[in-house]
Every structure is written in C-alpha cells, then in structure tokens.
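--- STAGE predict ---
source: upstream dedup step, 1 unique chain passed
mode: sequence only
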Amino acid sequence: MTQNRRQFIKSTLAALAVISAGPVSLKSSAFAADGAFQSKPWVELSKAAYLKNASQISKMAGGKPVLAVLKNNAYGLGDSQVARILNSSSDIAGIAMVKDDRALAVKAAGVSKPILLMGDFDNQLSDSLIEKKIILSIYSWDSLAKIKRLAGREAKPIEVALYIDTGLGRMGIPYQEAIRIAREVRDIPGLSISHTFSTLTSPKDFATEQIARFERIVAEMKKQGIPSGIKHLAPSSSLLELPSSHQDCVRPGILVHGSFPLANMPEAKRYPLQVPYRLKAPVIRLEKLRAGDTIGFSRFYKVEKDEWIATLPIGWADGYNGGAENGAKVLLGNQLVPVVNVNASHANISLGEATDVKVGDVATLIGPEREEITPEGFGKLVNGHNYLQINYKESLPKKIYETF
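--- STAGE serialize ---
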C-alpha cells in the first residue's frame, strides 16, 4: 500500500522517536505508520540504564551482590519486564517479591535467577510455587505450620527463608523467638534454609540496634548448627547510610529504578544513577481557551489570558500523581510546559498564547531528559517526594528499549 504524504511524515516522526538515544530533538507522534492512533499513556524502560544502576548499587555496597525488590509491580513499572532486564545482570543475585501470584508471573516471564517471596501465599498456589522453586518465607509460627505441611508431601527439599522481625513491627518472626523457630525448621525433613533476613527501620540509631540483634541471632544459629543461608538486611536507605547492614547481599527497591530514598543525598554524586524509564502520553485534545475560562470540576485552573490547553489521557487513576497540578512540568518537543490540572483520567497542560503542537504529539511526563521531569525533579517542583512518581497502574503498556 502506497503511503500518502501525511502518513509518511507520521511514520518518519515515530521512527525517529524510537531510535533516539539522547535528548528529544523532534516531536514524537502517537500515530503509527499505518495511521493508527495510540490514545493511551505508556511506560518505556531502558535496559542499559537498569543494568547500569544494578552495577552502581553493587559498588555502593562494596561489591556485594544485589537482591532486587520488585514489590508492587516494581513500583508500577512492570515487575516481569524489569525482572527480565535484571536477569542478565551479573550484579543481581535474585529477585524479591511480596505477592505470590506476581512471583509466579516473574518466573513465567523467563527469569532464571532465584526468586524470594517475602510475603504469604495462598494454599491453592502452593504446588505451583514449589514446582517453580520460589523461596518461601517463614515469618511466624502459623507460616511455619503451613510450610511444614507442604514439606511432608514433597520429594525434594523446599527452600525457605527465615524472616526475622528485629524491630520493624510489621512482618517477621519476633526476634525473641527466632532461635526457637530456626531450630524447628532445622529439624523438619524436607526444608532447607537458603536465606535469613530482616528489614531495617529508617532511624540510624535504631537500625544499628536491629543489626546487632540480627547478628546475635545468626551467631547463635551457627553455634547450634543451624544454617542461615544468605543473610540480608539493607533496603535502599540503610544500604547508603549503614555499611554494617550490607551482610551477604543488599536488598534495594527504589535505587534499582534510579531514585535515591531522599533528595540531595551525597551518595548521588559519588554513585550517579540513571532514570531508567519514561512515562509518556499523547495529546488527545487541543483547544484555545479564553480569558476567564476554567478547567476541571472544581474550576481549579482559571485562564487569565487566551491560551492553548492540551489534554493528555492520564490522571491519578493511572498513577500519575495529582499533585502535578501544583507546579510540575512535562516535556513536549524541546519545551517544558506546566501541568495546570489533573483529574482521575486526564491531565491538562498549558502551551501559552501560541503553539505549533498538534493532536498526536507525545509528551514525556517523567524521564531522564531534563532535571525537572526526573522523579526527584518532579518532587522538588511540587514540594513532595520522588516516591510520588513511581506508582503507576499495571494496565499501562510497557515498552523495553536497549537504551534511550
């Protein structure tokens, strides 16, 4: 089929947008080569950036391997997709998950590295979890009884992890009972301890006490002939601030996705990370509003003088933070433009009194191209936190690139 001039221009712009590895120099288009229009937002992932981050995190921990926590669908960025990328990294020792079905989904995606399930599991999924060699956590007497019943019917040992609560108070075996449960696990035929771990709180003084509790437990386990397997404690913040938390490996979450737990951490300069994803959405409506017009149910934004307003098909129901309307910007072509309203399904951006933007042009809401649209940059502009911008819904399509 012969392309007409309009289709040729659209397909050329789309191709340029995909292969570009540097800052945006041309407007990307939501129109495909066949003229079809992509009307939904999507997430793009950079394989090179994720692998670079894994290497940097290992360096932060003195060369220790990394157990990447991809809970909550990898903060909305796609657990299966990110896990497939990290599976090729020599710095990644394994993947840690919290939900049973997501652990199985990651395994089904072709991930060969060990997968640790840090949470509970439904009985109807137990056979699948064991068959796929998902490491199951023991975090209470009840969870031990549940796994003990499984061990009695399996021909091969079930790998388990001892999850010890050293003071977080949320999940885990109370540290005072850890040795009793560890002895019980040791003496159950069919169970093999491959991990012993805990989770540290943020205040460094108490986290230091947690580390001491953990190390006393591990020392007593060794004394009583109880294997501990791989030991780990350090989430992202402790990894950076407490070298004694590193143990056998480190267990970061948000660092994997290129963000530091707090703004302006000194480690960010020594070990720079890359934002490995972009959040994108096309312009679906473009109208010039007149002075006095307003936007939104609450009339949140009032037009002071005639200006062009573009609508993007993404809102807080998709995981784009509603606080964006309080100062965030998006990148459209080479221009940063302000977000002026966010509702459940849409975001509006102001293009000023004149614009060459067209319906179908694609905006980057979060990405590495400009400081203002990185997660940290977003947080600064809205006086919030970078965690605000990693909460996307699983329904957003994911596209994986070698680099961008």
